[in-house]
Amino acid sequence: MIPWELLDCATMPGERAEMNLWRRDDEFSIRLGNCEVMNSRLHGSEDALAEIACKRIGKRPNARVLIGGLGLGFTLAATLRHLVKDGEAVVAEIVPAVVKWNREILGHVAGEPLNDKRVTVYEGDVGRLMRTEKDAFDAILLDVDNGPDGLLREGNHGIYTPTGLQAIREALRSRGILGVWSVGPCREFTYRLRHSGFWVEEVPARIREGRGGRKHMLWIATRMNPRPPESEQRQEPRRPRKRRR
Ligand SMILES: C[S@@+](CC[C@H](N)C(=O)[O-])C[C@H]1O[C@@H](n2cnc3c(N)ncnc32)[C@H](O)[C@@H]1O
């Protein structure tokens, strides 16, 4: 058995645990403390997140897609496979070392997506970016946690609240698509999306493309107009617990 080799260490803003890059032969793993954030052998559902959302937006000219975060680059690479030639993929990554690892060490695992001319990298919090951009994206794809009720980073809590979903709604263009990745279902989040002005599909996605029965959960939510009345909107939810990928 080939042992895991630690290649580099970094810190995630607001978290005490170290973020580490590991390699075993041709397999890469990013871990936060002892919790695996992403593994290069398991990316079926991360690809599906981009494929399904990009098919929904079709061939809109100058389409803009926001991806948060970069990880090992699979969701970004899948977005680029479906994005129009004059489109733009903005990838937000809060840990600068992750961007560096993708540029210098492991970019080949997803086909070097950062080299594509349509890609813009934002080194920072995707939540902050979504709060400042208005009517800016045809799709927003979020894979920054293990799900709305399984945060990797405490500071991400606000993304999934009614206030956070309102900011996402405003950052999306008309009929824009929000895609959210999760380890498993969360009925409370589905309900919250519906009451925040989205038409919602819950899509189970295989962990490994074409193999095995285990599935992750994707929300594919379309921005609706107009927004539901205030009386139908929900209160801010309680802070969720941690959940493993
Ligand atoms: C599960 S990985 C993403 C995997 C990615 N979909 C792929 O295909 O490899 C989660 C990534 O989101 C980043 N992240 C977490 N919170 C973030 C935030 N608020 N803003 C931007 N990036 C964030 C993490 O540093 C990590 O690189």
Spell out the key features of this protein.
single chain, 245 residues, alpha/beta, Rossmann fold, 7-stranded mixed beta sheet, 4-stranded antiparallel beta sheet, 11 strands, 33% strand, binds S-adenosylmethionine
Describe this structure in words.
- The structure is a single chain.
- With 245 residues, the protein is α/β, with parallel strands linked by helices.
- It has one domain: 3-Layer(aba) Sandwich (Rossmann fold), CATH 3.40.50.150.
- Helices cover 23% and strands 33% of the residues.
- It has a 7-stranded mixed beta sheet. Strands 1-2-3-4 form a 4-stranded antiparallel beta sheet, covered by helices on one side.
- Helix 5 links the parallel strand 8 and strand 9.
- It starts with a strand and ends in a 22-residue tail after the last strand.
- The relative contact order is 0.16.
- The structure holds S-adenosylmethionine (SAM).
